[in-house]
Amino acid sequence: MTAALGGFSATPPARAWEPSAKLSQIASAYHTTSRGMFSCAVCTFLVQPHSCMVVNGDISPSGWCKLFDLAD
User: Is residue 65 predicted with pLDDT exceeding 70?
Assistant: First the structure.
């Protein structure tokens, strides 16, 4: 049960990017090769060793997709 306190919920807010389901490699335009200096190895979504938070399937650290997000 979630209790409301002064208009605030006791549950933490959702993160800005929390997809309910991962995208396919086709939908994300995933490629197994990098795009210049941009690669999955430096993307914030890569989960070592071969996974991604937003794209399904086996992900190569030397790959790239249109959802690429460079860490700040």
Answer: yes
In order of 6, 24, 52, the CA distances from 2 in angstroms are 13, 34, 31
| Domains of the chain: residue spans and CATH | 21-72 (4.10.490.10)
Q: What are phi and psi of 42, to 5 degrees?
A: -110, 10
Contact between 55 and 25 under an 8 Å Cβ cutoff? The reply is yes
47: tokens are 């989960």
Overall average pLDDT of the 43-58 stretch: 97
3-class secondary structure for the chain? CCCEECCEECCCCCCCCCCCCCECCCCCCCECCCECCECHHHECCEECCCEECCECCCCCCCCECCCCCECC
pTM above 0.85, yes or no: no
